[in-house]
Amino acid sequence: MKPKYALLNFCMLAFIFCVNPPQAKTQAKPVSLDPENPHYFLYKNKPTVLITSGEHYGAVLNTDFDYTIYLDELQSKGLNLTRTFSGSYVEPPNAFNISKNTLAPKPGKFLCPWKRSTVPGYEGGGNKFDLSQWDQAYFKRLKDFVATARSRGVIVEFTLFCPFYGDEQWALSPMNGHNNVNDIDTMPRTYVYTLDKNHGLLAVQEKLVRKIVSELKDDDNVMYEICNEPYFGGVTIEWQHHFAEVIAEAEKDFLFKHLITQNIANGHAKIKDPFPEVSVFNFHYAWPPVTVAMNYQLNKAIGDNETGFRGNSDSSYRMEGWRFILAGGSLYNNLDYSFTAGNEKGTYHYPSTQPGGGSDSLRRQLSFLKKFIEGFDFIHLHPDSSLVSKGALPHAEATVLAQPGKQYAVYFYGTLPPSFKLHLPSGKYVLSWMDTKTGEYKNKKVVSGANGKVTVSPPAYADDIALKIMSRE
User: Fold this and answer.
1) Residue 19 lies in a domain
2) Which domain holds residue 428?
3) Are residues 366 and 418 in the same domain?
4) Is residue 20 part of a domain?
5) pTM (global) more than 0.90
6) Are 207 and 134 in contact (CB under 8 A)?
7) For residues 13 and 4, is the Cβ–Cβ distance under 8 A?
8) Which of 77, 186, 201, 291 can pair with 367 through a Cys bridge, CB separation 3.0 to 4.6 Å?
9) Cα angle, residue 86 at apex, residues 147 and 104 outer, rounded to 5°
10) pLDDT tens for residues 442-473?
11) Dihedral (C-alpha) 423, 426, 427, 430: value to the nearest 10 degrees?
């Protein structure tokens, strides 16, 4: 090429670059609280509830687990949430009497954020860990897992830490001085998640959190849970608050911030002095509707992000999900033991001794719950106690969300009388009953409110049924 043409081409390229410079990757807005009703989520500009029946948190750290098949199964049922642990905690086989536990990978199949050293002696098999170095294979797998979930519309609740319920879990943690080459002093497991007794682990934990937050900065389908069940194993409230602040500080220059979630209690508890950095308050084995009602005034999302230990039957977990969401909760995650390594489609036939349940049929039933609530303009719904008179249902419970005079989402649990009255403002309404086991609507009917009351007669059903009421005005 002649020099004058080369110079001309260079000038043209420089002009194009100045007019249209390369665009930096723009951070997508992550799942957030809906500004119109912060009891619910907003994702991709759409009001959202998060409902799932998910595996036992080992999808990333257990390399035997094929998470693509698992996430395909969630997507096929319309479920949109999964929860996964970071790898700072791992379980021994048959922990909590769980058969084929995904949180208990086989020797050589455990992957965590820290790189293996050249020194043998890890309690779970293989070499010890070096807490000063990252395992790039882990972060590659983590990022691919999150991307695979995102492409299927699934939100990832990423749990950073978990208490050590017994010495058997602490014996397997890479943070245990016996399992790393970093001169970490031996200590009781109850010292690990404290600010003043952790023997130098606090700096290791802070570095881990900042690394994960940096790696997942651009992923819009992630929210961070500080610690699973921090009411066990010596986890202090000061330590939890510190790590809420560490996450917030690590994201202070981000265009958008990820949600921070906090696990409050098993069952129910009234939240006092909530951390300002926390937007989602989670419970395990919740007691709906009490759990939601006690904390609804916080105007934040309330979740039931782990349930089980109530036998193997689908009905227990279907009913808990319906009662929780219809009480005003916005996140429900059943612990599904039918997902294992080798059974990622959720086909494992677990023994009756398993502490919980999970099945293809339950996932379908939970998809009907999601379909039901999404059939409403639900960000305008709030808990309602006026639709059904107290004492009108002696053998049943009604859980109601309402936008009075416009829309009502109702869940009945127990045995309803052949007919009973609802308190509805004057007007015409379309009533449709949903079978919670099949997702089918029955007995669609237009009724007129007279003197503020409407008499309804439910179709035949067993155990529970849902009612959709929409104004026809």
Assistant:
1) no
2) 384-471
3) no
4) no
5) yes
6) no
7) no
8) 77
9) 110
10) 999 999 977 789 999 999 999 999 999 999 97
11) 10
